[in-house]
C-alpha cells in the first residue's frame, strides 16, 4: 500500500469518530425523543381522563337533578315525558332520557314508543340495581333512536326521591368523538375511549370507522396507567399510554397514541444534514491530504528510497541531500533529519566496511599463519562459513573446505571417538565445550587434537568458532614428563634407601673415617645421578661412568706421579639403562675406594686396568657383560683376606642380587683381580628402546682429570675405548 493510500486511510479513520459521534447523538436523541413521547402520552392520557371524568361526573349530577324533579317523583307519565323531552332539547349530548320503575320497566321516556319496555334484563339495569349507585354501561345502539350511545343509570330510592326506580340517559358517542377531536394530539397521534369490554366508544381520527369495534389493547381491566409501543387498530405502530378514568364510576379506559415516525422525520432531516456535512468535510480533507501527501510525503520518501536502493546496488557515492526533493528541506524537519542521518550513516558504514575489510584481511593472515585449525560454523544451518588451511591439512580435506558439509571432518576422527565428537557438535550453539579426541591420518598415523568451541558474541544466527590444536607432541611430552617424574621419584627413594643403608652399615674407627666413607659413597651416588640428569634419565655410557668414578683419584694422582698412567680403560661402547647406572657406579666406587685404601691406588706407582667385553657362554644364550678389574704396582699381597668389609659386601650384593650377575676375586701377589659377569639385558635397553642418538656412536674420552683419550681414528674397534691415566 502506498504512503498516500495509508494517509487517506488514516484520515478516513480519523473521520470515523465523527460518524460515531453523530450516530451516538442520533441514538441518544432517539432515546430522549422516545422518553419525551412517553411523557407526552402520559400527560395527554391524564388530561383526557380528567376531562372524561368531568363529563361522567356531569352526567351523574344531571341524572340526580332529573331524579329530584316533581314530574319524575309523582310518576305522571305525561308530565314526565314533556319534562324529559325539554331536557333533551336543551342538552343535545344526550339522545334519550328514560325513567324506569322498580321492576325495570320504562315509565316515561323522550321516545314515547319506548314506554312500557322491560329493560330489567339488561346488564346496565342489573348492575345499577345491584350496586344502588351511579353506573356506567357499555357501548350500545339505541333501540328507538338507533344511535351509538353510552348509557348511564342512577337508581331512585323512595326515601330520597319519593319513589323507587331508575333514571337512564344515553350519551351520544358522536358528541364524544367531537370531544376527542379537541385533544391537542401531535401529528400522527390518536385518542381512543373504550368500555370495560374493550369496545371502542370513541376515537380520533377516523371516529366513525372504528366506532363499536373491539380495541387491540391488552390488559384493559388494569387500574394502572401503562405505556407501551404497539400497533394500533389502524395498523400504525405508536407509543400508547392507556389508563382508566378512575373516580367513583370505573368502567371506561382512555388511550393516547403518539406516532414516533412523525417526530423522527424532522430529526432524520437534521441527521442527514449533519452526515452530509461530515461527508463533504471528509472529501475535502481527503483531497487536501492527497495533495499534501504527494507533495510533502511521497516525493521525499521516494527520494530517500531511491538513494537507499542506489546504495544497496553498490553506489557508494550517493547522498540523499543531493536530491532536489530533499535539498531544500530544513535540517529541523523530519525528512531533512532523516536525509542527513542517511548521509552520515552511509559515510559511517563505508568507513566501517573499510575497517572490516582490513580486519578481515588481518584475520585471514593470522588464521592462515596459525598451526592451529580455525573454523566458523552455523550449527543450525549446518554450514561451514570459514576454515583455515590448517583445518584442511589436519583433517586431510581435499579441495575447498567450504564445499564440504559442516560434519565432513568427522570422517577423519578416530572411529572410537566419532560418537563422542558427534554428541559434542550437536550441542546448542550457546554451549561451549573443550574436548580432546583422536584423528586418523591417511598414512595410518594417529594424532591427538584439542577441540575448543565457543559462541560468537552478538551473532543472531548462532555462529560458533572452533579452535582445533594438534596436542600430540604436547601430550607425549607430558606423558614422558610424568614418566620421568615417576622415575625420579623412584630413583630418589632408592637413593634415600641406599643412603640409609650406607649410614647404617658403614663402620669406621673414628668419626672422621666414618664421614669420609659416607661422603665417598654418597658422592658416587651423586655422580651417577648427575650422569642420568645430563641424559634426561635416558641412561649413561659405561666409559663416562668409569671416568666420573675415577676422576677423584686421578686428580690427586696427577701431582704425585707427574704423568705416570694410573688407569687404563678398554672395551666396546656400552650404554647402560637408567636402572643399571647406580648399581655399576656403587660397584666401581667400592672397588676404587678399596684400591685407594689397600691396593694399587694407595701407592704412587700403582695402576688399575679395567676391561670389558660382551659375549655369550653358549650359542643359544643371551650375551653377558664381562668386566675385569686388575690392579698392579700396589702393596704385595701375601694372602687373601680372611674378613670382608662393608664395601666388599656392597659389591657382591649389588652384582649378584640387584643385577643377577656373578663376582669373583683373585688375590694375585701383584694386586687384586676382580671379574664381574652380568646378563646384558640387565644393563642395556633392547635395541628398539635404545635412544637413536646413542646407537653406533663412537666413544669419545675427554682428557680432563688426567684421563687420556684413545685415538678416535683407531681402526681396531677394541682400541676405540682404550684410555690411559697418568
UniProtKB/TrEMBL annotation:
It is found in: Cell membrane. It catalyses: ATP + protein L-histidine = ADP + protein N-phospho-L-histidine. Residues 295-354 form the HAMP domain. Residues 433-483 form the PAC domain. Its main location: membrane. CDD domains: PAS, PDC1_DGC_like, PDC2_HK_sensor. It is a multi-pass membrane protein. This is histidine kinase.
Amino acid at each position: 500500500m502506498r504512503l498516500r493510500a495509508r494517509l487517506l486511510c488514516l484520515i478516513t479513520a480519523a473521520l470515523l469518530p465523527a460518524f460515531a459521534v453523530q450516530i451516538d447523538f442520533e441514538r441518544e436523541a432517539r432515546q430522549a425523543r422516545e422518553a419525551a413521547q412517553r411523557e407526552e402520552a402520559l400527560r395527554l392520557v391524564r388530561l383526557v381522563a380528567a376531562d372524561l371524568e368531568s363529563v361522567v361526573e356531569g352526567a351523574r349530577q344531571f341524572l340526580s337533578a332529573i331524579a329530584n324533579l316533581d314530574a319524575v317523583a309523582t310518576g305522571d307519565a305525561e308530565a314526565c315525558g314533556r319534562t324529559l323531552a325539554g331536557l333533551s332539547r336543551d342538552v343535545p349530548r344526550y339522545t334519550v332520557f328514560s325513567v324506569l320503575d322498580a321492576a325495570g320497566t320504562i315509565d316515561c321516556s323522550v321516545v314515547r314508543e319506548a314506554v312500557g319496555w322491560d329493560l330489567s334484563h339488561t346488564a346496565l339495569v342489573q348492575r345499577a340495581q345491584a350496586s344502588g349507585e351511579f353506573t356506567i354501561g357499555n357501548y350500545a345502539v339505541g333501540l328507538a333512536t338507533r344511535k351509538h350511545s353510552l348509557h348511564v343509570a342512577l337508581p331512585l330510592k323512595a326515601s330520597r326521591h319519593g319513589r323507587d326506580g331508575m333514571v337512564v340517559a344515553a350519551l351520544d358517542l358522536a358528541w364524544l368523538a367531537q370531544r376527542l377531536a379537541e385533544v391537542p394530539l401531535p401529528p400522527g397521534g390518536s385518542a381512543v375511549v373504550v368500555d370495560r369490554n374493550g369496545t371502542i366508544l370513541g376515537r380520533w381520527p377516523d371516529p366513525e370507522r372504528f366506532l363499536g369495534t373491539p380495541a387491540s389493547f391488552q390488559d384493559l381491566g388494569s387500574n394502572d396507567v401503562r405505556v407501551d409501543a404497539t400497533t394500533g387498530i389502524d395498523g400504525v405502530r405508536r407509543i400508547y399510554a392507556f389508563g382508566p378514568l378512575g373516580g367513583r364510576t370505573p368502567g371506561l379506559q382512555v388511550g393516547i397514541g403518539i406516532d414516533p415516525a412523525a417526530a423522527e422525520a424532522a430529526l432524520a432531516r437534521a441527521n442527514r444534514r449533519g452526515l452530509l456535512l461530515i461527508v463533504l468535510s471528509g472529501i475535502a480533507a481527503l483531497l487536501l491530504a492527497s495533495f499534501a501527501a504527494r507533495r510533502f510525503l511521497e516525493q521525499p520518501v521516494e527520494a530517500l528510497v531511491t538513494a537507499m536502493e542506489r546504495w544497496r546496488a553498490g553506489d557508494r557515492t550517493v547522498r540523499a541531500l543531493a536530491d532536489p526533493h530533499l535539498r531544500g528541506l530544513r535540517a529541523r524537519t523530519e525528512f531533512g533529519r532523516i536525509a542527513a542521518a542517511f548521509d552520515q550513516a552511509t559515510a559511517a558504514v563505508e568507513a566501517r566496511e573499510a575497517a572490516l575489510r582490513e580486519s578481515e584481511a588481518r584475520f585471514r593472515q593470522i588464521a592462515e599463519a596459525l598451526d592451529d585449525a580455525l573454523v566458523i560454523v552455523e550449527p543450525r544451518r549446518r554450514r561451514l562459513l570459514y576454515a583455515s588451511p590448517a583445518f584442511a591439512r589436519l583433517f586431510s580435506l581435499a579441495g575447498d573446505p567450504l564445499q564440504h558439509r559442516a560434519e565432513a571432518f568427522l570422517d577423519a576422527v578416530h572411529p572410537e571417538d566419532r560418537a563422542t565428537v558427534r554428541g559434542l557438535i550437536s550441542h546448542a550453539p550457546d554451549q561451549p565445550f573443550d574436548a580432546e579426541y583422536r584423528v586418523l591420518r591417511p598414512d595410518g598415523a594417529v594424532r591427538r587434537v584439542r577441540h575448543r568451541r565457543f559462541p560468537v558474541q552478538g551473532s543472531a544466527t548462532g555462529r560458533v568458532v572452533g579452535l582445533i590444536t594438534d596436542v600430540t607432541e604436547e601430550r607425549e611430552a607430558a606423558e614422558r614428563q610424568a614418566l620421568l617424574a615417576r622415575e625420579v621419584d623412584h630413583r630418589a627413594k632408592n637413593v634415600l634407601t641406599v643412603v640409609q643403608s650406607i649410614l647404617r652399615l658403614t663402620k669406621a674407627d673414628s668419626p672422621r673415617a666414618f664421614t669420609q666413607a659416607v661422603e665417598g659413597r654418597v658422592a658416587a651416588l651423586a655422580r651417577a645421578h648427575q650422569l642420568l640428569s645430563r641424559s634426561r634419565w635416558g641412561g649413561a655410557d659405561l666409559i663416562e661412568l668409569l671416568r666420573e668414578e675415577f676422576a677423584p683419584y686421578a686428580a690427586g694422582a696427577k701431582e704425585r706421579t707427574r704423568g705416570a698412567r694410573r688407569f687404563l680403560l678398554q672395551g666396546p661402547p656400552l650404554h647402560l639403562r637408567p636402572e643399571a647406572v647406580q648399581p655399576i657406579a656403587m660397584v666401581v666406587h667400592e672397588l676404587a675406594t678399596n684400591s685407594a685404601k689397600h691396593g694399587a691406588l694407595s701407592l704412587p706407582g700403582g695402576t688399575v686396568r679395567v676391561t670389558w667385553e660382551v659375549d655369550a657362554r653358549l650359542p643359544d644364550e643371551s650375551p653377558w657383560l664381562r668386566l675385569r678389574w686388575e690392579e698392579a704396582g700396589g702393596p704385595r699381597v701375601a694372602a687373601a683376606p680372611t674378613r670382608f668389609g662393608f664395601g666388599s659386601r656392597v659389591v657382591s650384593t649389588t652384582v649378584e642380587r640387584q643385577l643377577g650377575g656373578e663376582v669373583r676375586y683373585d688375590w694375585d701377589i701383584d694386586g687384586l683381580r676382580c671379574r664381574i659377569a652380568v646378563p646384558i639385558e640387565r644393563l642395556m635397553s633392547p635395541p628398539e628402546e635404545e635412544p637413536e642418538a646413542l646407537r653406533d656412536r663412537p666413544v669419545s674420552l675427554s682428557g680432563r682429570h688426567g684421563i687420556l683419550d684413545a685415538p678416535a681414528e683407531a681402526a681396531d674397534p677394541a682400541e676405540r675405548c682404550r684410555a690411559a691415566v697418568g
